[in-house]
Design brief:
about 400 residues; alpha/beta; Sulfate adenylyltransferase; six-stranded mixed β-sheet; six-stranded parallel β-sheet
């Protein structure tokens, strides 16, 4: 089995006897309220999804992540995992304190505070997202952050029940499942969308060369216009049930938010799948991108900077359905002219796998053509009055 990022799978979930003692003494700890997005980050740290992180980033690590896309120990890391608090609240916290992180009335975790520092929101946005344009959803969120950051290790006491417990697996659990299935090589697939025929083609092409396929959709905050979590899960379930070998495909969720950080997020996504136990990771066109903020293949090119990443990227070009070939294809495999070529006898020989076009068809209540999306998948989506966030 492939080693987790950093060599060890982090486990900062407290044992029951320690939890009980802390719960009884919780009023002795300063309470800091965290939102649901931070709760998911805490759980991902504690269960090893974000290995080698053991807590929220201290200033040295954040500076290195922004400047060199590495932690202070030189391990590859590209996305800031930070805990922001208001200035007035920060005045109550000192380095060396142990604080209680809570959501509502729930005691989520303790945190041993190792650093307390201010930061430049504009600098963070520009370095992580490559822009300060407020039309970028990640930039908008960066400027909403509170003024002070706390860094330090966390210990998970409790976390809210998952809305999808069947698919909510920790890296320890996925690794055991891969081992039980006899999978030695596993390809991970990141998604925030329902599956179209192009996705299926890419997944099955990659699966040809490995033992198993790990489909791992993001469940959490997304931008308006993206598909709802439940729709994504239902459509993948019906696709797997009808078109995949059950012993070769596995579906589990990643509870986090989309940052839309393009190439940086591609590396982040690869590290996470490495922690889940994947040996390979699929990267298509404009991975984790939004609008026109990143070149189409920037998320593939960035892997040249990380020869030590420890997971093998599988790069795929843009795909389409060719009616002449009668299958999904790309410019390397299809000899037929694109639609704008007047020599092409069929002006619609290529059906592009366009998310915008798919949304337009679905919003009209119409069924997309089978060259674009499986009929069973379309039927699931059309049962929803509004399948979008």
């Amino acid at each position: 089995m492939i080693n987790p990022h950093g060599g060890n799978l982090i486990n900062r979930v407290l044992k029951d006897d320690v939890k009980e003692k802390l719960i009884n003494e919780k009023n002795e700890l300063l309470e800091i309220k965290v939102n649901q997005r931070r709760v998911k980050e805490i759980e991902n740290i504690a269960t090893g999804v974000y290995s080698p992180l053991e807590g929220f980033l201290v200033q040295n690590d954040l500076d290195n992540v922004m400047d060199s896309m590495r932690l202070n120990n030189d391990k590859a890391w590209t996305i800031p995992i930070i805990l922001d608090i208001a200035d007035e609240e920060a005045k109550k916290v000192s380095i060396g304190d142990t604080v209680r992180l809570s959501s509502g009335d729930q005691f989520i975790a303790t945190m041993d505070v190792k650093d307390k520092y201010s930061f430049n929101k504009k600098e963070l946005a520009e370095k992580v997202y490559g822009t300060i344009d407020m039309h970028h959803p990640g930039v908008t969120e960066a400027f909403k952050l509170k003024d002070i950051l706390l860094g330090g290790t966390i210990n998970l006491v409790d976390s809210p029940k998952s809305l999808y417990p069947r698919y909510h697996l920790s890296p320890a659990e996925t690794r055991k499942s891969f081992d039980d299935r006899g999978w030695k090589t596993i390809v991970g697939f990141q998604t925030r969308n329902v599956p179209h025929v192009g996705h299926e083609y890419v997944q099955k092409t990659a699966l040809t060369f490995v033992d198993g396929l790990f489909i791992n959709p993001v469940i959490g905050r997304k931008k308006p216009g993206d598909f709802k979590d439940e729709v994504i899960l239902q459509t993948y379930r019906v696709l797997i049930d009808n078109y995949y070998l059950k012993e070769r495909a596995m579906l589990a969720i990643l509870q986090t938010e989309m940052r839309y950080a393009g190439p940086r997020e591609a590396i982040f996504h690869a590290i996470i799948r490495k922690n889940y136990g994947c040996t390979h990771f699929i990267l298509g066109r404009d991975h984790a991108g939004v609008g026109n903020f990143y070149p189409p293949y920037a998320a593939q090119e960035i892997f040249e900077k990380f020869p030590d990443l420890g997971i093998s990227p599988l790069f795929f070009p843009s795909f389409f359905y060719c009616r002449t070939c009668g299958s999904s294809a790309n410019d390397k495999t299809c000899p037929h002219a694109p639609a704008q070529n007047l020599e092409c006898p069929d002006p619609e020989v290529r059906v592009e796998f366009s998310g915008t076009k798919l949304r337009d068809i679905l919003l009209k209540g119409e069924k997309p053509p089978p060259e674009m999306i499986r009929p069973e998948v379309a039927d699931v989506i059309l049962k929803w009055e509004n399948p979008f966030v």
